[in-house]
């Protein structure tokens, strides 16, 4: 066994700067709840608001500052609720408006804020506006993007744009007109050039802000405005979520004016309500545009999620991310998983190795300056479910690619709460089967058994989130890299915290790293030296020189 020895070098400590009085979002830990898969309160096999309410205490104990709820609006569920048919209501399968009000009040009572999803790029094809557009009622098609086709009899789509879910981004109606849908045909794109669309969404936001929500996660925030004249994109391959190519339907400059008006709206409410942009822009600098001081507060940093497990790629993405948001004075966000991506235990190699890396990634991520998003089940170390049978799959990506891409359902499997019960405590006893089956061996990873095991994934997260809350060096602020051996990342947060991560294959000996606060795997230490095993991260407390 090779061991490399290194002494974390002394770093001059900058004078700690007093944090601004609030701006809670600058270092918040925000927990994503994929509502249909979190907890089933009414026994129909689908998670709901009652279920969320029953588990708020769990989230408060985990130590998160806020929750983000994915869409719970009425929806025909062609895209897991991102096809909204009514923006001021709750899907009856998921609860009532009173449940939403109670949820917000109860979360606030436990010291947590509540963000909800808003889906402004498209409605459901079952939204009353689209029904009117299908009937070609006066002005109704102006709310969407309707165009005549090209070629003889207009039989060719108006341009070459493709749907993110596979196939063309245009569908033709029996009367010959085409409408645009960057996602499924059941998700027609709205026309944001139309003032009526703008007014409607401002009103929808007021509706929810009046109920007391603390802000919005803005779905496809870079998609609302399309390039003038809808020019061809010149596609060479299927568009993917997380793609990087500049496109005539994403990241157009015009979206910023809309986001500025939303910022004014958010700021007109008391209590620091925030907007979080879901954007996949072509570069970190373009991402920073969405979080300029007069735009949204945060944007998801998917570059971090997409980085390979390795010291080089991670250091590069951390530096680029911080540099980009620093340009505009915004906090960086750190995201490892969400409901659209393969869970990171699996991305990092799966099995014991993926689990070990994901534990180390948790300590790396929670030590970085900025705000951290946790996707439900990440704190349990859940992997992607790769063997869901075809007949249970629901993601439009599976259908639109004729099964070539199995889609995102594997990251949306319901959460196991209790070890021995039939639905692992996801549903009450005697309930219908869960909408996606929970793997039989997930009992061990359920919440209750993990709570009782001090070395569990869940307790690692609980300890780390708690320490992050109480340690003065963690959260907002700056970081400083230290020299370290290849395939390791060492950095300090001041005052007095050292984070060491070994991403390589060999153990690394640390000389006098300080007092161990938390480690992702077992740590051998004799007070003077410690051995950092492969795929392990540790936090150390040090007296600053
Ligand atoms: C966002 C959502 C994703 C959805 C898409 C279309 O990317 O996260 O789940 O399918 O928007 O609304």
Automatic annotation (TrEMBL):
Residue span of region Disordered: 1-21
Biased composition (Low complexity): 1-10
Coiled coil: none
SMART domains: Aamy
Keywords assigned by UniProt, alphabetized: Glycosidase, Hydrolase
Domain spans labelled Glycosyl hydrolase family 13 catalytic: 32-412
Gene Ontology molecular-function annotations: alpha-1,4-glucosidase activity
Keyword check for Membrane: no
EC number assigned by the record: 3.2.1.20
Ranges of biased composition (kind: Pro residues): 11-21
Family recorded in the similarity comment: Belongs to the glycosyl hydrolase 13 family.
Protein name according to UniProt: Alpha-glucosidase
């Amino acid at each position: 066994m090779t061991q490399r020895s290194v002494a974390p070098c002394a770093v001059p400590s900058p004078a700690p700067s007093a944090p601004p009085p609030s701006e809670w979002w600058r270092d918040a830990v925000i927990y994503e709840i994929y509502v249909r898969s979190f907890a089933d309160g009414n026994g129909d096999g689908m998670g709901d608001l009652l279920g969320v309410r029953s588990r708020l205490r769990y989230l408060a104990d985990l130590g998160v500052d806020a929750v983000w709820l994915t869409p719970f609006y009425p929806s025909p569920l062609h895209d897991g609720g991102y096809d909204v048919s009514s923006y001021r209501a709750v899907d009856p399968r998921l609860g009532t408006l009173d449940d939403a009000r109670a949820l917000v009040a109860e979360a606030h009572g436990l010291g947590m804020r509540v963000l909800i999803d808003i889906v402004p790029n498209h409605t459901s094809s079952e939204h009353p506006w689209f029904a009117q557009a299908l009937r070609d009622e006066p002005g109704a098609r102006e709310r969407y993007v309707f165009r005549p086709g090209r070629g003889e009899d207009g039989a060719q789509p108006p341009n070459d744009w493709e749907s993110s879910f596979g196939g063309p981004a245009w569908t033709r109606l029996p009367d010959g007109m085409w409408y645009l849908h960057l996602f499924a045909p059941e998700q027609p794109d709205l026309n944001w050039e139309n003032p009526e669309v703008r007014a409607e969404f401002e009103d929808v936001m007021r509706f929810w802000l009046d109920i007391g929500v603390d802000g919005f996660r803005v779905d496809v925030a870079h998609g609302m405005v399309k390039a003038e004249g809808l020019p061809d994109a010149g596609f060479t391959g299927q568009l993917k979520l997380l793609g990087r190519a500049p496109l005539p339907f994403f990241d157009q400059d015009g979206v910023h004016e809309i986001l500025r008006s939303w910022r004014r709206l958010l700021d007109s409410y008391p209590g620091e309500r925030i907007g979080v942009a879901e954007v996949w822009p072509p570069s970190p600098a373009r991402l920073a545009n969405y979080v300029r001081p007069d735009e949204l507060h945060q944007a998801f940093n998917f570059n971090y999620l997409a980085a390979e497990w390795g010291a080089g790629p991670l250091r590069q993405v951390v530096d680029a991310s911080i540099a980009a948001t620093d340009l505009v004075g915004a906090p960086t966000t750190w995201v490892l998983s969400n409901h659209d991506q393969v869970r990171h235990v699996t991305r990092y190699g799966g099995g014991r190795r993926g689990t070990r890396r994901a534990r180390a990634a948790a300590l790396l991520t929670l030590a970085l300056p900025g705000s951290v998003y946790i996707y439900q089940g990440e704190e349990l170390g859940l992997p992607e479910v790769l063997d869901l049978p075809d007949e249970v799959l629901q993601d439009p990506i599976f259908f639109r690619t004729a099964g070539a891409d199995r889609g995102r359902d594997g990251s949306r499997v319901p959460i196991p709460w209790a070890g021995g019960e039939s639905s692992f405590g996801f549903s009450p006893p005697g309930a219908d089967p869960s909408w996606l089956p929970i793997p039989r061996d997930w009992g061990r990873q359920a919440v209750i058994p993990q709570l009782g095991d001090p070395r569990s994934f869940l307790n690692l997260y609980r300890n780390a989130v708690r320490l992050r809350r109480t340690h003065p060096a963690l959260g907002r602020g700056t970081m400083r890299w230290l020299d370290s051996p290849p395939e390791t990342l060492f950095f300090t947060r001041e005052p007095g915290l050292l984070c060491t991560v070994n991403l390589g294959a060999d153990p690394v000996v640390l000389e006098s790293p300080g007092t161990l606060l938390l480690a992702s795997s077992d740590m051998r230490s004799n007070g003077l030296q410690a051995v950092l095993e492969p795929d392990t991260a540790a936090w150390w407390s040090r007296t600053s020189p």
